[in-house]
Structures are given as C-alpha cells and as structure tokens.
Amino acid sequence: MLVVRRIRVHYRLQAPKDQWETAERVHGFHAPFCPMYLSVKAAIDITTELELVEPE
After folding, report:
1. pLDDT per residue as tens digits for the range 4-55
2. N or C terminus of the chain with fewer C-beta within 10 Å?
3. 14 lies in which domain range?
C-alpha cells in the first residue's frame, strides 16, 4: 500500500530578472489559493521551492 506523507514541489520559472521580486512574492502566498493544496494540506505535508532563471 502506498501512503503519501509529503509532497515537495520544485518550480523552475524562466523570467526576466526585473520580474523575480514579483515571482518570489507570489510564490510566498500562492498556496492558500491552490485547490490541490487546500484539498490535501491537512493530511499531507507540502513544501515548495522556487528556482528563477533568466530566459535564454
């Protein structure tokens, strides 16, 4: 039987440097607006990290 106890999400966002501050701010509060997070937050530990890279 598979039991999921935690989920780790790694976002890799390609954005111009002048938008990084906004992306970091939004990443800091997006979870309470995510339907999936709201559905499982009581039973599963969810963590996220944001990696920002400049467009190629």
Report:
1. 999 999 999 999 999 999 999 999 999 999 999 999 999 999 999 999 999 9
2. N
3. 6-53
